[in-house]
């Protein structure tokens, strides 16, 4: 199908007059790497590239279709004629078809027409296209990715110190619904660049995580059903416009994480599925090649060329878009052959087990490639099971990720907070259990989009009690989260307590952020982020047992817990959390050092919408043993709140 008529009127080109197979971007070494699954720069070879051959400027096209009988390039430059620009299959058996077409340049619309040996015919978008028509249109667009970046200082700083050595507080964003125009149309990448960086900086977030940005035909998939793996969605602008947004975030001191989806891809005819009349990118057997939950194809991780394609795509994001981290979606669905399948619906591995051995090797190769080419970039696994060694080095048999989402913490914590306070004494273990395994992996604590969709309600609506108690609970949840070891992630809207669950077709309810209680939550999130970055005890040992010590975890009668966060330099902070609406007077806790302490944070502060039950500006220890310590403090614990204490000085 040709692109929309309005595109034709603008982009139509003269009939080109040179088609030749005498030009190639592939060397014999490229082909050997590709076939071995080790070519990680395919985006510079496959796809459409501006080139010059025998003094003629034009475009070189290359596509992998090993089982095709015929492939041709069709586009606005040849009237979408399937016979006009037939490609040539390389002699080396690689399955790559190529052609050089003189007389055309960037901004041409095109597809590949493929005829299989069985007679199957189809028009496909280019798997390696840098730009694409806005859905529902399906054509690829020849594009030059040249851009003048100004984020050199950011990249130099990124190389100087690993992100994992600093505070990591991630703001998860869906580009199509963070903000919109009054007529409900999307903000462009450039319009987003004028608002998002400043907001994140003011709020104290260290990173933005974008839900999948690359082209996807169904907006309601939130980007998790991709057809254009190398093309940022045209809904919001051009590739350079997306570069502009990343550049602006970097210049504001904000890192950028992309959701990356190697787990599955949609069945849309113009996409990767059944690409050359065979199951090329996916397994032919639906027991391995079709995902029952998402009704989508699963990549064949055992095919070398597919691994080259996927890992090249990951490195492309880091190379061309200066991305700082990749969060890999659906890792559990990749690792397990029986994921979401009943008995008889899956094929065991060669040893009779449920582990996908090919996928394990793929994930290890992916992480080795990312860290080998970009040692200052980090990877994060959305892995919801107890798979061992997700964040262990591949040399030790691990998967090689830098961090893993702590899904167990998320489930236990939200279940605990949804429990009425009067019953929380029976669930004390839910709020403390995560520290039994908190240092078995390097964890990110996620309060992501998945928790505020499909009828689950918003975070604030999960909280029990009247309106005041709901917001006090939410403030307490965030304070507890920032005191817990690990990186932090919160989905947009949660930072100001949006009432409605997320709806991708509408922007956030920003007017609610002006309401007193919601505005208080927003202030609290800002202050927690800044506290997190300023207090080294909160991040220096974020992933190490040396950074945490329980003071009291067994006071289930009062639903109170207390703990220490410890830094490398001897700095420490003491957290005390009261999970009931009862004020606790003269509550004594043991502390690590004698002397004077100050309360540097209180989630019940009036400025956050709390009842303003605060401790004295200066708190003096007493030589009364408590919790295994020689000295202790007598505190007032505000209702449904957490306080943070810091040692100031010894006795005079």
List the helices and strands and how they pair.
Layout: H1 5-11, E1 18-20, H2 28-36, E2 47-53, E3 56-64, E4 68-75, E5 88-89, E6 96-102, E7 109-116, E8 121-124, E9 131-132, E10 140-141, H3 152-160, E11 169-173, H4 189-193, H5 196-203, E12 207-210, E13 214-215, E14 228-232, H6 239-251, E15 255-260, H7 286-289, E16 290-291, E17 296-297, H8 304-321, E18 325-328, H9 331-335, H10 357-373, E19 378-381, E20 403-405, H11 407-418, H12 428-432, E21 443-447, H13 459-462, H14 467-483, E22 487-491, H15 516-534, E23 548-555, E24 560-566, E25 572-578, E26 584-591, E27 596-602, E28 619-620, E29 631-637, E30 641-649
Parallel strand pairs: 11-12, 11-22, 12-15, 15-18, 18-19, 19-20, 20-21, 21-22
Antiparallel strand pairs: 1-6, 2-3, 3-6, 4-7, 5-6, 7-8, 7-10, 9-10, 13-14, 16-17, 23-24, 24-25, 25-30, 26-29, 27-28, 27-30
Helix pairs in contact: 8-10, 14-15
